[in-house]
């Protein structure tokens, strides 16, 4: 289904081109200008014990900002907090692509060793981080947008290396992935709000492209996602931003 770039380029070749220059003007590249979707989802039922909101819906933050922060937010060139969040987002993105064991993931869940697999795995982790971030109002929205921006900067750097012999095919690949991204994140939102069957369907469509797959692999991925979402829900956003690190659960080999 995907072009030659997928069938000939392995995830191992993606480990690890330098990511992004974070510096531009004041030390941080300006965040992407993507607008929020109007897609609205309800909160998870209480028995899930996960304070889940849509990765596209902004939830008003409950705690009032301090007077000093409110004043700074009204002065664009003094909006230090926003710059800090953007910088943290790029570091959090780097942590995913630098530290996560992609090879173990594709081997455990029988995925092809391709650029497409690298992208959808990274996309999944960005979605899980976005779910946590968007429970925090406007600050979470800044974090989500900056992480997505970091993804596309990184993608463009990687495909330049992988697609040198087929630039037109590379461009189409990236455009297809870009067009599919928001629909994928919304389908994951629907999946985590619903039962395991709906979540498994979203994974099957995105990861396996509706091809034959062992049901056990879908079950394992869904189980992993729900555990990771629950873990993230227990971590305060301020802690994530200060430490600039997230505990991503390891992929445990199962029989």
From TrEMBL:
Transmembrane segments: none annotated. This is Ubiquinol-cytochrome c chaperone domain-containing protein. Pfam families: Ubiq_cyt_C_chap (PF03981). GO terms for cellular component: mitochondrion. Residues 108-244 form the Ubiquinol-cytochrome c chaperone domain. One of its GO terms (biological process) is mitochondrial respiratory chain complex III assembly. Belongs to the CBP3 family.
């Amino acid at each position: 289904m995907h072009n030659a770039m997928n069938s000939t380029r392995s995830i191992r070749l993606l480990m690890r081109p330098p990511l992004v220059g974070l510096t531009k003007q004041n030390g941080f590249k300006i965040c992407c200008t993507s607008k929020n979707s109007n897609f609205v989802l309800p909160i998870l039922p209480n028995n899930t014990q996960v304070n889940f909101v849509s990765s596209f819906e902004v939830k008003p933050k409950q705690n009032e900002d301090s007077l000093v922060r409110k004043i700074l937010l009204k002065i664009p060139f003094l909006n230090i907090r926003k710059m800090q969040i953007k910088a943290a987002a790029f570091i959090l993105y780097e942590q995913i692509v630098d530290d996560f064991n992609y090879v173990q993931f594709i081997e455990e869940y029988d995925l092809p060793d391709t650029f497409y697999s690298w992208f959808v795995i990274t996309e999944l982790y960005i979605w899980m981080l976005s779910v946590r971030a968007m429970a925090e109002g406007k600050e979470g929205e800044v974090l989500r947008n900056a992480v997505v921006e970091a993804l596309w900067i990184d993608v463009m750097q990687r495909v330049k290396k992988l697609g040198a012999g087929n630039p037109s095919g590379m461009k189409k690949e990236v455009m297809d992935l870009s067009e599919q991204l928001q629909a994928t994140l919304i389908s994951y939102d629907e999946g985590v709000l619903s039962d395991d069957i709906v979540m498994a369907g979203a994974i099957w469509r995105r990861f396996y492209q509706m091809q034959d797959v062992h049901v056990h692999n879908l079950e394992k991925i869904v189980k992993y996602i729900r555990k990771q979402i629950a873990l993230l829900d227990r971590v305060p956003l301020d802690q994530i931003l200060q430490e600039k690190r997230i505990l991503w659960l390891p992929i445990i080999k199962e029989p």
